[in-house]
Known about the structure:
Distance between the termini: 23 Å
Strand order of the largest sheet: 2-3-4-9-10
Largest sheet: 5 strands, antiparallel
Shape: globular
Oligomer: single chain
Number of strands: 11
Helix content: 25-40%
Amino acid sequence: MAQDTEQQASGGVLPVDDEGFVIDTEDCEERETAYRERGTSRPITVVGNPVLHKECKDVTAFDDDLAKLIDDMFATQRVAQGVGVAANQVGVDLKVFVYDCMDDEGVRHVGVVCNPVLTELPAERRRLDDSGEGCLSVPTAYAPLARPDYAEVTGQDEKGNPIKVRGTGYFARCLQHETDHLYGYLYIDRLSKRERKDALRQMAEGTPRYPVVPNE
């Protein structure tokens, strides 16, 4: 997920709170730095690339190859100045995303989710936020998109342990956006035809600030 223009000891299992959700707000700088410094930035795939438009494969091997991919995704995220990156955005057909995202209270969250599943919220808990949204795979384009201002995701960490992650505000948007990626959806797929056309126009007229993979 692209950073909103207005908001511009790795390898271990994160602790959990009393409700079983990961505590992803501690030692953020140290953990993100450790991932990133081991990794190598990769170019970002952009809308039109087939890998972005299909459901990714489940992660089944929690091995060194996955660890290397995660390190590279954190490195890529930093170069692209994003707040979340999904594996298919670096051309890899696997259900894993990383994030380094502030919530609306200014609290930083850093973590990894493999095989994410978004929890369906009951109607009484669905309060929509129609803030602007962008995507590293649709560079230079932004559009308002209504999403719930709270999100819960279940999945696994990089070691295969079951985890639950929750977020509010901008971080909730990030969790929903990145999970969407791994099931073949870009945020522009949730826009009206006119809004999607406008976003693609913005992309065509802009210049990405990070390396991208050109479509054939």
